[in-house]
Amino acid sequence: MALTLDGATPKTLGVLDQGALWANLAVSLLGFSGALLLLNPLGDAPLSLAAALTATAVGSLIGTAMVGLSAIPGTQTGKPAMVLLRGLFGAKLSYIPTVLNIVQMIGWGAFELWVISNGAMAIFGTAVPYAVWVLVAGAVTTALTIWPLGAIRLLRRYVTIGVIIAMVWFAVDFLGKAPPQTGGDWSAFAPAVDYVIALSISWVPLAADFARHSRSSRAAFTGVVGGYTLAQIACLGLGVYAVALAGASAVAANSTAVFAPFVAAPLGALFFAILVLRETDQSFANVYSTTVSLQNLMPRVDRRIFSTAIGVLTVAIALAVDVTSYGAFLGVIGAVFVPMFAVLAVDYFLLGGGTRWNTAENAPARWSMLIPWALGFAAYWVTTGTPTVEAWDRIWLPLREAVRQPWMNGALGGAIVAALVTLLVGLVGRARAK
């Protein structure tokens, strides 16, 4: 596999490889505790079980369709995600989203090491200190990042089967123990869909990093949509019952409390250990995406050097920072990358950008593409109903109250505005050229 950005991109991954990768990425240990936000995204208007499951299906399909479409240019050009943005914004302007992506991916990588370590401690207790688990998880993550295609094949051949068995085992146990899920209504359906879309859309910035190794665009798209959608619905559905067993108040106070029902199940420690081990694919994906994002800035540096350095950095952050909540962070990610995806999709697929996509180091700046991205970012905050940071939300509150519709959410609002403005900018540009 190429070690620098100048090297050839091998096309070895089929639809089963992509499907296994994205199915595993959709199953997250703290994704189970995410059912708490799914069931009550506003904090005062709980959803019924039917509404929550419907929101999960709708949000997953919308979000994974976006991720799947963002993967196709990577397959067709052979370029990672941040390098693709040279064609959208120009080489120098692509550094803006690249830096944002590097910051968020390092944060997510450290967060996943924290999750893995707490999951291991839920099984083994405090006999092995937290710091030791972080170091072990960091070493495994770094090794997987150095050999990424081998890691994906490992997921397809072995890990996915174990995860399926574990999920089925826990589902049978939880359904027999959990109290009936009654009450609630559909009033917070749109914010719940917003939350699920944000869970999916957080992968847009790295979809092409793996899709560029796909044998075809169809394999990349099908693997993303099929694998991730089914697994995310299963993960959040199982999370509803895990939260019920652990206690919503306990999970709200400490998200790792959701681990208790898993470990308490018959053979729970064994099957939960499979899920903990599988969580390294999350940290691997984040560190690998950071690595190839850095290559957009420094294209001729050996990615193994970046992988080792980022692996050490994420370990250091995981040892120094305690992460307790990430719902607000998902809203910020959605606001940045949903409109950016919409701009890319319209320009690449509808305005003929795919035939002239320039990913060279001297690709000219396209300042006009910043306009729809910025307006889409603003539209996201105007139309979202999901709370994030109180002071930030307060800025947008008057506009939200003026335009709020029960069917609208931030992801749809941001994507629609960004897409329409991109289309307008493109048509105006064509008219001037003629």
Automatic annotation (TrEMBL):
Return the protein name.
Answer: Putative hydroxymethylpyrimidine transporter CytX
Its family remark reads: Belongs to the purine-cytosine permease (2.A.39) family.
User: Which Pfam families does the protein's record reference?
Assistant: Transp_cyt_pur
Q: Which PANTHER family match?
A: CYTOSINE PERMEASE, CYTOSINE TRANSPORTER CODB
- List the source organism: Nonomuraea endophytica
The membrane-topology field of this record reads:
Multi-pass membrane protein
GO cellular component term, pick one: plasma membrane
Q: Where are the transmembrane segments?
A: 21-43, 49-72, 93-116, 122-146, 158-176, 188-208, 220-244, 256-277, 305-321, 327-351, 363-382, 407-428
Q: Which residues form a coiled coil?
A: none
Give the UniProt subcellular location, in the record's own words: Membrane
Chief location of this protein? membrane
Question: Has keyword Transmembrane?
Answer: yes
Can you name one GO molecular function term for this protein? cytosine transmembrane transporter activity
Identify the keywords attached in UniProt to this record, alphabetized.
Membrane, Transmembrane, Transmembrane helix
Q: Which domain of life is it from?
A: Bacteria
Task: Kindly give the InterPro entries that the UniProt entry links to this protein.
Answer: CodB (IPR030191), Pur-cyt_permease (IPR001248)
